[in-house]
């Protein structure tokens, strides 16, 4: 391999993975020792973090066969045992949370606090939420003379990205297992190591509760190879995909050949609307809080959050003040080593992402948007003072109009655009003028007006003021942000078939 693997986590953890987790055992790829591998790069540019096998369609086939074998056993397993497995996995993640956080931080660059509190604990919470949900879930209902029965959909292929890698895996795997499905997971090649740790958790949890090993299988490899082999596989009943809209389209087309159930959680370009205190008024109480919240939402995880509201819509009357506050606030954010705890920002995760975000920033300037803060980080603003790695300063664009590429395209980096509007009608029109519909936000001191406006935003998740996220509430996209919902009972339903028995 090209890079030495010297990161400190290596001393405690196995980051040199050579086997897949299939059918309850660590198995070498079909190609054996000659199988090429993928190097997991360090976003700080210092060193490689680890490596995983670059699997093939044959490896995907092995994993599907193991899941197919486990499926009827698991589908017939009592909900009590399913609960035990989900709770055991939640507990297993919690017990090893420091390891998970270290690996996630190393492979995708999230600072340690984020990797621990948000990424790892949220994943454990999702597994536990499905264990709890099964305690009194009504699987059947009566409609007239008919009995409506929910049954597991079958073998599920879960394909996931790198930005909140473990949490996004949990949202699929926990719901599918709760429903009685068997899963083949193909995580992102850019942040796959956390998934191998999760397989270690399953390796202990499955035998402990008497679950078949093949309920959870893990293969790695390129999306175009292993991903497509799964999405087109005749023995896969459903695909749950989280990633870019572009890849989501390919997934849907590939799955159409065998008419699979397809869940898609895709990109976004969400709007945050700051409303004036009175309809069409000229003041916004707590504007500085509104701007601070806008920036922390847009910059968290270095802007690599699919639901981030990266278009901030501000009334004309307070626009200049809001932009000045945003420029000042952006300057307060520090870039910092992801291996450290703290509220700093890490690098963006991959070289591809880094190049893409910088290209978007250049395009914004070329189109006439005003760069009031940020851009490519000069070496002296980077943690090692050398500028190696994917460092981008928290970036604010003003004078953005909704026809500019920076307002239309998902950038997926720490870049936020400020747009102005005249009245609420125009704000609603701009907010909804997007191919995406993943999320949105409203800031308003009047709760009723905020709620009315939230209902006008065509998106799956709308936050009012500093509203809190619940792992039991559904998330998902309108328009080209996706199909289907994840989390809670709505997420569970995505993995069931509905049968009517009538007599
Ligand atoms: P990506 O689309 O490049 O890859 C996602 C996964 O799909 C990876 O595992 C990849 O290997 C696989 N893949 C790629 N092409 C494939 C194909 N043709 N067939 C099957 N699998 C394929 O996305 P990414 O860069 O890893 O993640 C960033 C994107 O994910 C952003 O667009 C972001 O908005 C989106 N995202 C959406 C949500 C959501 O809930 N809506 C959550 C997180 C991220």
Question: Can you walk through the features of this model?
Answer:
39% of the residues lie in helices and 21% in strands. The protein is of the alpha/beta class and 503 residues long. The protein has 2 domains: 8-266 and 481-502, Aldehyde Dehydrogenase, Chain A, domain 1 (3-Layer(aba) Sandwich); 271-470, Aldehyde Dehydrogenase, Chain A, domain 2 (3-Layer(aba) Sandwich). The strands form 6 sheets. It has a 7-stranded mixed beta sheet with strand order 14-15-16-13-12-18-19, with helices on both faces. A 6-stranded mixed beta sheet has the order 9-8-7-10-11-21, with helices on both faces. The protein has a 3-stranded antiparallel beta sheet with strand order 5-6-22, with no helix packed on it. Strand 3 and strand 4 (48-53) form a beta hairpin. The N and C termini lie far apart (64 Å). Residues 1-7 have low confidence and may be disordered. Bound molecules: nicotinamide-adenine-dinucleotide.
